[in-house]
Design a protein that fits this description.
147 residues, 33% strand, homodimer, two-stranded antiparallel ribbon, Elongation Factor Tu (Ef-tu), domain 3, mainly beta, globular
């Protein structure tokens, strides 16, 4: 079975692939929704945050297990126990803050997609997406400096 | 541009399409990951919650705008301002609670996918996915009975 999707838009200005590292938490990306779909943005400005489902089109490799960040002192874990890119389906999922909406464009903070990445879907974030105390593995808490 | 994806698994036992309505918040679904990818589950039991990215393969229609739940007293909004199915790319996204992991199967609470739906990806939920007070439109707050 093969599933075929088409981009609904593109990251016009996103994280640079080269050069100095950018802090995604403050960086503002511009996403353009293609004209045939841009009426689908109507009312999205009533939300503060949106899930961006995008396609990591530069990923050429698939890993089923890996050590997070390639670090030797990390445990070997399955790809579905991580958010790393070399997945069987390289779908990106990011919670982004809506900075402004001027159809067909949105400006979004915290998106970690490169310029040119295809957008597959946008879904508003709502209270049902909040998990108050999610359990996470020790290796991730160590990285995020969480007790 | 066309994007081709392949299922990594299937909802073996999910919400029934017919019969009495089931409360998804308590219903436990079984997802089976295909053998070639099942090692990718290693360590996923260290998380309490996971994003399930699935394909709404029964959606035959695309809407760019709609009235939520088809109700006349709702405003007309864009599809990307809702989570409703008739999207240009009918990708489902659900935060599910991990009940148990016995590879190649997971039991998940709160998944709103029908039996037989293809699974595209699993991504663990972490603290960076929490938005403490997301802004939402009045029509959604009215539905969720939130002030």
């Amino acid at each position: 079975m093969e599933i075929r999707l088409r981009p609904i838009g593109v990251v016009e200005s996103g994280l640079p692939e080269e050069g100095p590292r950018v802090d995604r938490r403050t960086f503002v990306s511009t996403v353009r929704i293609f004209d045939e779909f841009s009426a689908g943005l109507k009312g999205i400005e009533e939300y503060s945050h949106v899930f961006v489902i995008w396609f990591m089109d530069r990923v050429k490799e698939t890993r089923i297990t890996l050590k997070p960040w390639g670090l030797e002192d990390m445990p070997e874990v399955g790809i579905f126990a991580t958010r790393f890119p070399p997945r069987p389906n390289p779908i990106g999922l990011t919670v982004a803050e809506i900075v402004s909406v001027e159809p067909p464009r949105l400006r979004l903070r915290n998106l970690d997609a490169w310029t040119g990445s295809p957008i597959l879907d946008l879904k508003p974030y709502d209270v049902l997406d909040i998990v108050q105390r999610p359990k996470m593995p020790e290796w991730l808490k160590r990285f995020l400096k969480i007790k």
